[in-house]
Specification:
The protein has 387 residues and is mostly helical. The chain is 71% helix and 0% strand. It has helices spanning 10-17, 44-60, 64-88, 98-114, 120-140, 144-170, 182-196, 204-218, 224-244, 249-280, 291-316, 322-336, 342-365, 374-386. This is Enhancer of translation termination 1.
């Protein structure tokens, strides 16, 4: 079989995470879904928070089509509550509690992040405004017991604001410049303060999410030193989760993606080095790998270990998702292109093809809206035609 090009997967992976939505779901019955939290009858704010949390659960299982109407429902209900609140309680000069603004602002952020063909910036601005209102509301609380009761949501709001700042900073990152945007630095400083708070520690889901977001931001930088600032921060947080919960699939997945991203950085560097050498003079094909390729290989082996753990753990609970097979397939393809022995290379290709087929089978059997990354689809077609 002719040697294949690497299946560059970072862009494709992110595209896969934002699953393609063929048709906009109807949001008129958003509140008729089964909520993930028990809410007392008549507790409108509790329902909004539960609606948002239900949407986040959908996201965790890659059910983006199911999450979108719930995020829209959260926003629509929040708008309605706020309008009625302003009309009914102006004389009392009170505002909804911090948890309301947390759900409202976070839903705006998530909807903007997941909506295709729409400008993210207006969503970010609206989300930031609502979350800032939530912190102001927290600061207005006078009773110590009220402060204590709402402290956890105040921390969640600070984390949500940091996510928004990182998203805004992404548009300011340029590979040609060495500077880190002030908003990104502000976000990390805020997260460090939140993580240092021992009495109101973040839950595991929050830790994994911020680790993933910071890690993804680091991938935007062309300079390894700048990347490392964010990669190492994220890895520290994710390893903290795995230390407490060795079988946390989400944390293990993000650790694997981090190593895969690092491998792709080194593979790109190896390609550039190879192109420069070819321009200087023609050289005989080498059977050894360069230092950049060795660095990539080391990262890929770590990534493979994480992804295999993810698949093994998920298989035990029947919670395997298509992307788990796709992630491992990409690692195997990249590893195969660093192997000089043709027999070993073919073996890795075969394993990769099997995982791609498994990704498609899982999506079909679980009726999930999943789009296989283009690079993996092309690899599978080429592999199948050569057999």
């Amino acid at each position: 079989m002719e040697k294949k090009k690497r299946a560059r997967g970072l862009a494709a992976q992110k595209a896969a995470k934002k699953s393609k939505i063929e048709q906009e779901p109807d949001t008129s019955n958003a509140q008729t879904v089964m909520l993930e939290q028990i809410v007392e009858e008549g507790d409108e704010i509790g329902e909004v928070v539960a609606l948002y949390m239900s949407a986040m659960v959908k996201c965790e299982t890659d059910d983006i089509a199911g999450a979108l109407p719930l995020f829209r429902g959260t926003i629509n209900e929040s708008d309605r509550i706020l309008r009625n609140w302003d009309a009914e309680k102006q004389e009392q000069q009170t505002r909804p509690p911090p948890k309301f603004y947390f759900a409202y602002g976070s839903a705006l952020y998530e909807l903007g992040r997941l909506s295709q063909d729409e400008d993210f910036e207006p969503y970010l601005d609206a989300a930031e405004e609502r979350l800032a209102d939530g912190l102001e509301r927290f600061d207005e609380l006078e009773k110590e017991e009220d402060k204590k009761e709402n402290m956890a949501y105040a921390q969640k709001i600070r984390v949500a604001l940091a996510k928004i700042w990182i998203a805004k900073a992404a548009s300011q990152v340029q590979e040609s410049t060495s500077s880190v945007p002030d908003l990104a630095t502000k976000a990390l400083d805020t997260l460090d303060k939140v993580l240092a708070e021992k009495e109101n520690e973040l839950d595991t889901n929050d830790l994994v999410e911020i680790g993933a977001i910071v890690q993804s931001h680091g991938e935007l930088y062309g300079d390894l030193e700048k990347q490392s600032k964010f990669r190492e921060w994220a890895e520290k947080v994710l390893l903290r989760v795995v230390k407490d919960e060795p079988e946390n699939v989400r944390a293990l997945t993000e650790l694997g993606l981090g190593q895969l991203s690092l491998a792709n950085f080194w593979l790109d560097a190896a390609d550039k080095e190879e192109e420069e050498e070819e321009e200087e003079e023609e050289k005989e094909e080498s059977t050894t790998i360069s230092q950049e390729e060795k660095n990539a290989q080391d990262a890929l082996l770590k990534s493979q270990e994480y992804f295999e753990q993810v698949l093994n753990l998920s298989s035990k609970t029947n919670k395997v998702l298509p992307r788990m097979h796709a992630d491992l397939a990409e690692v195997l393809i990249n590893l195969s292109n660093l192997v000089s022995d043709e027999g070993e290379q073919q073996k890795l290709y075969q394993q990769a093809a099997e995982h791609i087929q498994n990704a498609k089978s899982v999506a079909q059997s679980k009726e999930l809206e999943y789009e296989l990354p283009e690079g993996l689809q092309l690899f599978l077609e080429e592999w199948s035609s050569s057999q």
